[in-house]
Amino acid sequence: MTTSDYQKVFKQLDHKPVAKAKFIKFNEPKKRSCGIRLWKCKNCGRTAAHIKKYGINLCRQCFREMAVGLGFKKFS
Fold first, then answer.
1. What is the CATH number of the domain that holds 64?
2. Domain count, the chain
3. What's the burial of 46, exposed, middle or buried (CB within 10 Å: 0-12/13-18/19+)?
4. For 2-29, what is the mean pLDDT?
5. In whole numbers, what is the pLDDT of the chain averaged over residues?
6. Fewer CB in 10 Å around end: N or C, the chain?
7. How many helices (H) and strands (E) does the chain have?
8. What does the pLDDT read at residue 61?
């Protein structure tokens, strides 16, 4: 379940406080302090294929789009 779906369910459960509390207890995304899912792309929010080197904090797809503007050159 994605974060956006998690927030949409609240509209249906607003009139059922007990069911809403139970839903939150079991379906809330975990608070993360370490690991691969902690890092997100600062452009699109994607967590996969993340580049942290040099403080770039972009996914590989966004990096390809912005590489020339950041001063990187493609060799080949």
1. 4.10.830.10
2. 2
3. middle
4. 79
5. 84
6. C
7. 3, 2
8. 93
